[in-house]
Amino acid sequence: MASTRIIELASIISTNTRKIDTHLSQKGLPTPSFEANCHPQLLFGHGEDIETARQAVVDATDELQALMLGPGNYISSLFVNYPPTLTYTT
């Protein structure tokens, strides 16, 4: 069975997040968070390999979110700072 795009995106996110997490752990660095003591540039300056992995996660996350929202809700989300109320009627 061929893999679907959403499964491919999930795999990209998982693989590259694991790569970043392993790198941070090996360097004795914390994982990213929104805590006050988390360095704002934590994921930058670790070399091309980690930057490529970080960008792959960001890109795949954006695409997966768009696919999960669907065209109309995705377009709405570009103009509103909160998740749209997802309703579906038949």
Please write the string of helix (H) and strand (E) elements. Answer: HH
The assigned structural class equals mainly alpha
C-alpha-based Rg, rounded: 16 Å
The geometry reads as flat
Low-confidence stretches: none
Number of domains: 1
Strand content: under 5%
Report, as a whole number of angstroms, the end-to-end distance. 30 Å
- What is the helical fraction, as a range of percent? 55-70%
In DSSP terms (H or I, runs of 4 or more residues), the helix count works out at 2
For the largest beta-sheet, the strand count, sense and barrel status come to:
none
Overview in brief:
This protein is mainly α and about 90 residues long.
If you had to describe this structure to a student in words, what would you say it looks like?
With about 90 residues, this protein is an all-alpha fold. The protein has helices spanning about 5-25, 50-75. α1 (about 5-25) packs across α2. The longest helix is centred in the C-terminal third of the chain and has 30 residues, at about 50-75. The model has no long low-confidence stretch (mean pLDDT about 90).
